Amino acid sequence: MKNIKKISSIVFCIISVVSLASCADIATARTATAPKVIIDSDYNTMSDDGQLGVMAAQLQAQGKINVLGITVVSGNQWLKQGVADALKSVERLGVADRIGVYGGANYALSHDFATIKKEQALFPGGDGYLGAWSSPEPTSQSDLKAPPDGFATTAKLQSKGAVDFIIESVKKYPHEVTILAIGPMTNVALAVHKNPEIIPLIKQIIYMGGAIDVKGNTTPTAEFNWWFDPEAAQTVLRLPIRQVVIPLDVTDTVILDKKNYDRIANDPHKQTIVTKLFKQLVGYGFDGKNGFETNPHYTINIWDTLTIMYLMDPSYATKTEQMWVDVDTRFGANDGRSVGYRNGSPAGVVLQKVTVVQRFDNARFFDAYVDLLTRPVPVKLQ
Questions:
Q1: Is residue 14 part of a domain?
Q2: Beta strands 300-301 and 36-41, pairing class
């Protein structure tokens, strides 16, 4: 009897090991065939870019996405600060060994601060948000602001730059790489300029950028991401690549309210470092954080995270329209303004037909958003 039990135990162990190996193989296979993505971002700890980083890692753990890397560009913050926040993010999530961080462009192609100040003086308005230009450029580690849980100690910046990483990734996986462009377009513009042969090899670009039929935010006419580097945005939008634009037209209608905020920040059964940082850095009017008083009517627009859910399933977009989109790069009140043409390119300009998202399935989006931001951390990638 003892021998029978012993043999049975051995057989059970073998089956268990084989099953676990099979599960791991299946998960690995799923990730290998999942959409390959580069997140090109002006990264931050837990605003829209940081939230998208969390969602991407959780989706990768489910085998639904394959994040090749995070490329960082100046925009919301200067490059050095964005890199520091991105490194801490992948370390915090436990994915630093699988998702590398690559430093990119520190300055826009041509939209410098002197030009911005002249435009502001002559054409005031908008919310005045300047991103990186709101603070002095950091020159050393001592100039950087640590995330609330400290700087990364093990995650390191990749030696390869963002531009070369984009080029090499697209060449390695022709027609497979989606670029989630959730910051200024400087890195991508530099990549296609340096190596134009990658243009037909990019599968698609999904942007959070532009304002087609609504007002801008940074200025009365321009959305921040494309305003920060209008020349780069215009360059990339004019490329013959499949492109999807998620502009302020839709982000103005996807609003984080107190109910959904509480589902993330205040669910006692789903507390992680991510939810705690979310509460600390996004709380403001919801919970009276950082000197703000609690406001029962306080809401926040949702921006970058719409791009990753559209990638997962385009049916999240309940209304879209095909347009030819361009960006104004001329000095003046409309610098950085995006324009959507519904009847083809204007005379003398060759534009590309792109999909412009106008409305989202908000209820379905927030269910996914809450779920991904409240999953266990560290993330267990296969």
A1: no
A2: unpaired
CA–CA distance, 245 with 249 (Å, rounded to integer): 10
Q: What angle do CA 282, 67, 87 make, to 5 degrees?
A: 55
Inter-CA distances, 381 with 32, 67, 99, Å: 12, 11, 10
> Domain residues for 270?
255-299
Place of tokens 């209820």: 363
Residues 128 and 221 in one domain: yes
Amino acid at 213: D
Is the bond into 378 cis (omega within 30 degrees of 0)? yes
Tell me: the pLDDT tens digits for 142-185? 999 999 999 999 999 999 999 999 999 999 999 999 999 999 99
Domain co-membership, 264 together with 191:
no
Provide mean pLDDT across the span 275-294: 83
CB crowding 52-78: b at 16 or more within 10 Å, else e? bbbbbbbbbbbbbbbbbbbbbbbbbbb
How many domains does the structure of the chain reveal? 2
Residue 2 confidence (pLDDT): 47
For residues 295 and 307, state if they share a domain: no
Element (H or E) spanning 169, and its range? helix 162-172
The amino acid sitting at 94 is G
pLDDT tens digits, residue range 309-333? 999 999 999 999 999 999 999 999 9
Q: What is the pLDDT of residues 15-24, one digit of tens each?
A: 454 454 454 4
